[in-house]
Amino acid sequence: MTMPDASRSAVMLGIFSGLVSSTAALCWSLTGFVLIVYFYAYIHQNDKQDIVYSNHLVDTRKLEKVEEEEEFHFTPAKDRRSPRAIKRKGPRKPTSIIQEFLDDSSQVHAFFFPNKKTAISPIKEGNDSMHFYPGQLWLDTDGNPIQAHGGGILYDDNTETYYWYGENKDGPTYHAHESSAARVDIIGVNCYSSKDLWTWTNEGIVLPGEETNVSHDLHKSNVLERPKVIYNDKTDKYVMWMHIDDANYTKASVGVAVSDSATGPFTFLYSMHPQGCESRDMTIFKDDNGEAYIIYSSNDNSELHVGPLTDDYLNVSGFMKRILVGRHREAPALFKHQGIYYMITSGCTGWAPNEALAHAAESIMGPWETMGNPCTGGNRILRSTTFFAQSTFVVPLQGLSGIFIFMADRWNPSELRDSRYVWLPLTIGGLPDEPLDYSFGFPHWPRVSIYWHQRWRLPEGWRAEER
Ligand SMILES: *[C@@H]1O[C@H](CO)[C@@H](O)[C@H](O)[C@H]1NC(C)=O
Ligand SMILES: *[C@@H]1O[C@H](CO)[C@@H](O)[C@H](O)[C@H]1NC(C)=O
Ligand SMILES: *[C@@H]1O[C@H](CO)[C@@H](O)[C@H](O)[C@H]1NC(C)=O
Ligand SMILES: *[C@@H]1O[C@H](CO)[C@@H](O)[C@H](O)[C@H]1NC(C)=O
């Protein structure tokens, strides 16, 4: 059948317009389909996240379980004085548990430094695998005790690996002078690598001490403490800051070293008085925006100073704030959660343990407020001695918001190389237990809690990529 041109074109038009409308419909239905798929995937993804998240919650709750210990009852160490001395001076005065802890012949000391039989080893398969045992000897993948005291951890995005830097104290402990503190000669900064924060492989000494040149900052007769490493995205360098001192702690300086690789070798650049001030215990902190800061004990350890580093992280900038003035705090460990800065510090009692304090601030430059002792569980003595340890670093866990690892050193001043690591879960939440300086007693920040556990492990999903 043939049609007049006009009707034909009208039909064509109708077909065409039908085509147009059906294309539009198709488009709409496609869009709808895509939306539904997307929505479904979204809900499904949320389902999955909810499942993972609730698993996290169960495991996380375990970390927040308050584990109580009985009060300690120990028989004091034997009186090692001669019978004549005892007769002349009378019986030994009762000693405090901290004195007992420091006395390597005491039962208390033996309790807090359990022997090698109980060492935790990544080589030994078994039910201890992946479990942290605060205070127990901790071996590396070669079967040697980990030597990384006063340390800190860097997560390296480039290699997706954790690096633990700390003091190698594997030398004899001695006193340089009769009245001076126990010390070990500088051996260097050790580095260990791990993917799981539990199995640590020794990467060797990444910044060695100096054997012969007595005028060098790292000469073995000096002091190198609390090394910390951060990565500079702009210069592509790994930058190490550390406390540099002489044996009498009168130099009170910071040292800076730099490397192209996380596993070194690091080149020592110089030591200095930051902003012209003395600096002893210190740490550095890299903020989300790439700005880095140094925090150090100054003015005879009576206050802390905080100030930004230069863009290359190799120097301090001119700007500095005095914080926690007159509070005599050291061993600062800094971390950040939901835009708030937190810090754990210790008191200044040498190698002897003391009570930790948690602090919080809206700006890293202060004002910093003190929230009280974060230690939870254990018993009164464990809580008042930071579990017989001293803060050194707080490790964020990317996959678990609000949960961190608190890293501390249980110093053994009679044999410093045998000092132990106390790692415990730290969480943020709940009400602080000390009224704050600037908020008229109203709780301003959530409580920081460090939970005592004899044995614990990280909850599943603590890595960001598992979510
Ligand atoms: C490890 O597991 C074995 C067998 O299940 C058990 O006998 C042993 O007590 C466990 N050890 C610890 C420390 O839990
Ligand atoms: C010893 O160290 C100082 C300070 O770092 C340096 O100036 C000097 O050149 C070194 N001496 C030798 C012989 O390496
Ligand atoms: C440390 O002090 C002692 C005496 O207290 C002194 O003999 C020694 O020279 C000092 N050492 C340094 C490196 O200042
Ligand atoms: C660090 O910066 C200060 C000025 O803030 C400057 O005086 C000093 O020379 C710098 N140090 C180094 C090693 O560049």
UniProtKB/TrEMBL annotation:
UniProt KW Kinase keyword: no
Biased composition (Basic residues): 83-92
Biological processes, Gene Ontology terms: carbohydrate metabolic process
Stored Pfam families: Glyco_hydro_43
Keywords assigned by UniProt, alphabetized: Glycosidase, Hydrolase, Membrane, Transmembrane, Transmembrane helix
Protein family (similarity comment): Belongs to the glycosyl hydrolase 43 family.
Protein's name in the database: Uncharacterized protein
